[in-house]
Structure formats: C-alpha cells, structure tokens
Amino acid sequence: MEQDSDRNSFLAMAALFEGGLVVVALALGWVFGVPPLESLVWDPWAVLWGLVGVVPLYAGFIIFDRYPVGPLRTIKETLNDLLGPIFARCSKADLAVVAILAGVGEEVLFRGLLLPLTGGGSFVIGLLISSLLFGLAHAVTTTYVILAAVAGLFFGLQWHYTGNLLAPIISHAVYDYLAFVKIARDFRASPLELPPQILDGDSYED
C-alpha cells in the first residue's frame, strides 16, 4: 500500500539521517579528540531537568501556533505543508521513535561535539557558534533559523549547568514528540488536505 510505503520510507530515512549524525559526531570527535558522549551518563536529576525543560519549549510552540502573526504564520504553514502529510500517516509510536532519534542525534552532534569543539576552551563562544549552526541546520525560514538558534542556546545551557548531555536529549526528544503529534493532529483535522485513504479512516492515530 502506497501509504505504508511512504511511512516506512520516512522512518527509514529518519533513522539513517539521525543515526548518521551520531556516526559523524563520533568520527569527528575521534579526529579532534573531543569525545561527544563523554558527558552522557544516567542520572535521575538530569532526567528531571530534561522533563522540566520541555515546559517552556512546548509553551512557546503552543503560543506561536495559536497566535501565528507575521512570519510565524509562514512557519506554521510551511511545517504543515512539509511535515503534516507524512506525520498524519505515522502512529504515535512512529513519531516517538523519530523524536528520540532526533533528540539523540542532534544533541550528540551539536552539544556533545560542536559546542566544546568550536569554543576553543570558552563555553560562551562554543555555545554561540554551536547554537548558530543548530539554527542554520533548521533553515525552514529565516525566522525559524532564529527560533532554532534560541532553542540551541537553551539546550546548550542545559548541558552546561547539568553537566550531562542526557538533559538536553530528553528535552529535545520530548518536545519534538509533542510538536510532531500536534502537527499530525492539526493536519488530520483539515479534511481538504487529507488524501482519501486517511479520510476513510486508514490512518495511524494510535
């Protein structure tokens, strides 16, 4: 079935891309002597701070989504057009897997490797450069680059003050999951945009 094929292709691409970020981070870390997983350890407090960090991130997402003025409307429409169709074909479990992959892959690369590597011993410089690169990696629109860079600053500060990469990974993954689910629900709630098979009930809500 074409719908299943598109969904499976998307999940495979997400796994390859986000997993590839970890491989790249490990390879570059070996070359430059910056082990990106060095600060990743299990710690209940890091888990707690990661979950707490989701609150301001998702609150900002909801506010921007509910009041999409100016360039925020462009972001909302672009994300709906780009991600809505494929997210609507995915189950919540699918979206959770993609969110976890994104949280791990992107945090290992940008906070685990690039932040200490680009700082040259200065946390502030590394934070600014890695956050800018993080924003540029999310070049959906100019405003989205700025918002992503701000999120990068947030994740970098989490990593710095907890001393544990687990905190930003959890914040990033949980936030992504909640955002993905909302994008999928919003798309499903727009019947004119849905393909016939989803309108007929052949979707992956659970």
From TrEMBL:
Transmembrane segments: 12-33, 45-64, 113-137, 143-161
One Gene Ontology molecular-function label: endopeptidase activity
GO aspect biological process, one term: CAAX-box protein maturation
Keyword Membrane applies: yes
Claim: Calcium is one of the keywords in the record: no
Residue ranges constituting the CAAX prenyl protease 2/Lysostaphin resistance protein A-like domain according to the UniProt record: 95-177
InterPro entries: Rce1/LyrA-like_dom
Annotated keywords: Hydrolase, Membrane, Protease, Transmembrane, Transmembrane helix
Pfam families linked to this entry: Rce1-like (PF02517)
Record PANTHER family: CAAX AMINO TERMINAL PROTEASE (PTHR43592), CAAX AMINO TERMINAL PROTEASE FAMILY PROTEIN (PTHR43592:SF15)
Name the UniProt record assigns to this protein: CAAX amino terminal protease self-immunity
Organism field: Symmachiella dynata
